[in-house]
Amino acid sequence: MKTFFTLFLVSILISAQNQNLPIIPNPVDAKYQNQNFSLTPKTPIYTRHSNVLSEILCFNHFLQSYYGFKLPVTKNVPEVPNIEIIFSNDFKAEAYQMEMNSQSIKIKGQKSGIFYGLISLLQMLPTEIKETHPIPCYNINDYPRFKWRGMHLDVSRHFFPKENIFRYLDILAYYKMNTFHWHLTDDQGWRIEIKKHPLLTSKGGWRNGTLISHASSPTELYDSIYYGGFYTQEEVKEVVAYAKARHITVVPEIEMPGHAVAAIHAYPYLSCHGKEVSVIQKWGVFDDVFCTKDTVFSFLEDVLTEVMDLFPSEYIHVGGDECPKINWKNCPVCQERIKSENLKNEFELQSYFIKRIEVFLSKHNRKLIGWDEILEGGLAPNAAVMSWQGIEGGIAATKHGNNAVMTPGSHCYFDHYQGDPSNEPLAIGGFTPLSKVYSYEPIPEALTAEEGTLILGAQANLWTEYIETWKHVEYMLLPRLCALSEVAWSPKGQKEYESFLIRLKDHFQKFDKRDIHYAKSIYEINTEIINDTINHQILLKLNQAYPENKIYYKSEFENSKETFIPYTRPILIHKNQTIKAETRDDKGNVLGKAEQSFFVSKSTGAKIQLKHQPAKSYSHGSPHTLTDGILGHIPWNSKEWLGFQSHPLIATIDLGTTQNIEKIIAHTLKAEASWIHLPSKMKIDVSMDGKKFKKAGELSASDITKSGRILEFNKSIKNVRYVRISFDSIGKIPAGKSGAGHNAWVFVSEIQIF
Question: Which one is the CATH code of 148-518: 3.30.70.580, 2.40.50.140, 3.20.20.80, 1.10.10.10?
């Protein structure tokens, strides 16, 4: 019994030590050795293998940047303690083994595996090193789950010089990401030098101003600053070499056939109409796209030839997303192309376009990858799909036998808010907190085991419409990249969010020391609404990530002067009020804040039923999101909204007792750049028993347009218990709008009944 207890105690201690191992992503297997290795700036790195010197050189680069010293490298057997690097083909690519004791650290693997082993060692070092520092010893066996561990950066909306790109690559390498998706061309700017077509950068790389208001704002505001920039081919080569040294593949994206206005501005013949156009100054989707005449394909082949000379990547990204068809419909050349190629419509014309480019890339031993719209009209035989609109594109691609990279907007769009918008810099909208990124599973349940092998991996995307500075880039990237790295590297069954949060605190200290700007929204207080439909009321529950910190709150009514008190249980919300809360550490320092206003009506806390469920990507909370007293923010934060696209929103609210109604207010959203439109109609039906409903009235399309996004139905109705509100979508998004041809979204945050 005594022996059993001793073993049990030892196992707990080892588990605790493993939990505190500050490596992100979490290694596959790590065993604590109950001893320390003392590292000093003079600790030698010993290797007999000259082919791994570049990995050691990169490791020393990180040491110099973060600690101000490099370790000496020797081919001669040094005295202990030392770090030994052993190249071995016995390991799979990217896998490594690290054996540590008080006298030595041995890292084994192929070149990429050795690099990742050195990165793990780097992460085990403290925030500061002076003369010596003891490192707890572990034996680690580690390898990645997915071979595509990607991070994207849009430099078209806002341009960042190569030095910033180097810093970006260092951050990716530190978290074992191996793919950098470089979005180089779009409507707002062409960012890569093409020597055969120099006007692409001299003209297409610059715009005469930039939208400075949010796209969802009723009034568009612009600056008049001549804005732009581009990378010379020599700079591109530097970036590619810098990435290669960190075992990162750079995948360039050259957008086609849509998102082509900057190129058309430089060379108007590339369009269907041949007219002069300006580089776009705002965000969205625009009608000018590449024409399908042969001269356009010759141009694109010229561009891709130079791109392939610069980028040795297996895949070339061609975009393929958000391509309006209106100009093709009105273009004699494109209509003749449809006839001559026996195509059914413009969607098949887009497929023809992508397939023709794929044939060209295949002749040069490259593979095509594109956003999931390349599925429209038929998928090119060997193309890989980057699934961004959800998981459906990835599922369709793999069931077709093609590879896919999963990057759904619901979990992997880092331009979304990650905390309370009132505490965050301006973002496009949405809500993708750290916990949601960490929860992502790249292989959809709908796939068989064999189909799942076609999922190359996961990627996050950072679009820069609202990101002008490099500090803002880092803020949106971190710490969500840390979560994504663990999604893409660590075994599925080994992920544990609580352990991740513990390890993350060590990385926060290093970010602070290294002047890396990052989001601290993890310290914010999370709010959760408890819907007590029996008593027709709601309660506000508060929680936060780190249990050692405490929550304090106060409730503010009109003209009230409450003080902060400790939070112990959910707060009853019974009238219009604002709850302010903050989390404090044991020294009383405020780490995070939250503020939530409530607007109580007869519908607050009521039972509600939806005929159709909202889209999974926009169904945070429950149907009670519409009756929780919270009005959605603008710019929109998807935590506060329900989104409907394929089915109409039909909500039935049970007021609990028979009552008289004076008016009904619905809070809707207009954000057309994100495909979110006002409904075309709002209908009201009422009932006493919930079975037989009678029409009470409606707001027509013209009424809704006049009223803006807050739809107010004013009519006295007596003796009502059940209220059914229906919102009709506009259907397909019309030509000239972002997402033209797709079903429009309807978003609603609250239905108030007075």
Answer: 3.20.20.80
Euclidean distance between CA atoms 610 and 733, whole angstroms? 24
Write the burial class of residue 365 (CB in 10 Å: 0-12 exposed, 13-18 middle, 19+ buried). exposed
The reply to whether omega before 41 is within 30° of 0 (cis) is no
Are the C-beta atoms of 346 and 329 separated by less than 8 Å? yes
Catalytic residue among 55, 84, 154, 186, which? Answer: 186
pLDDT in tens, 206-222: 999 999 998 878 789 99
Joined together, the tokens standing for residue 530 give: 């408890």
At the fourth CATH level, the homologous superfamily of domain 607-753 is: Galactose-binding domain-like (2.60.120.260)
Whole-angstrom Cα distance, residue 526 to residue 737? 36
The stretches of 311-454 forming alpha helices (DSSP H) are 326-329, 332-340, 346-363, 392-399, 409-412, 434-438, 449-452
- Please say if 322 is a catalytic residue: yes
Catalytic annotation present for 728: no
Asked whether residue 8 carries a pLDDT value surpassing 90, the answer given is no
Lookup result for tokens 């690519």: 93
Contact of 167 with 243, CB cutoff 8 Å: no
Q: Which of 181, 197, 214, 259 is catalytic?
A: 259
DSSP code per residue over 427-462: -SEEE--HHHHHT--SS-TTS-HHHHTTEEEEEEB-
The model's pLDDT over 60-106, given as tens digits with 9 standing for 90+, comes to 999 999 999 999 999 998 888 999 999 999 999 999 999 999 999 99
**511: part of which helix (H) or strand (E)?**
helix 497-513
Does 6 score more than 50 pLDDT?
no
- Which residue reads 């005594």 in tokens? 2
CA–CA distance from 344 to each of 56, 327, 695, 722 (Å)?
57, 17, 43, 48
Backbone angles phi, psi at 667, to 5 degrees: -100, 105
Whether 540 has a pLDDT exceeding 80, the answer reads yes
153 and 181 Cβ atoms separated by less than 8 Å: yes
* pLDDT digits 0-9 by tens, 123-157: 999 999 878 889 999 999 999 999 999 999 999 99
Q: What CATH class does 2-142 carry?
A: alpha beta
Out of 55, 154, 322, 346, the active site residue is 322
Confidence of residue 558 (pLDDT cuts 50, 70, 90): low
609: left (phi over 0), alpha (psi -120 to 50) or beta: beta
Q: Where in the chain is the domain with CATH 2.60.120.260?
A: 607-753
- The CA-atom distances, in angstroms, between 332 and each of 195, 273, 282, 292, 339 are 31, 10, 29, 10, 11
Quick check: is 259 catalytic? Answer: yes
Contacts of 481 (CB under 8 A, 6+ apart): 151, 171, 172, 175, 177, 414, 460
pTM: 0.90
CB distance 593 to 582 below 8 Å: yes
Q: How far apart are CA 153 and CA 162, in angstroms?
A: 13
Residue range 427-453: average pLDDT?
Answer: 95
pLDDT of residue 3: 47
pLDDT class for 304, splitting at 50, 70, 90? very high
Q: Is residue 686 over pLDDT 90? A: yes
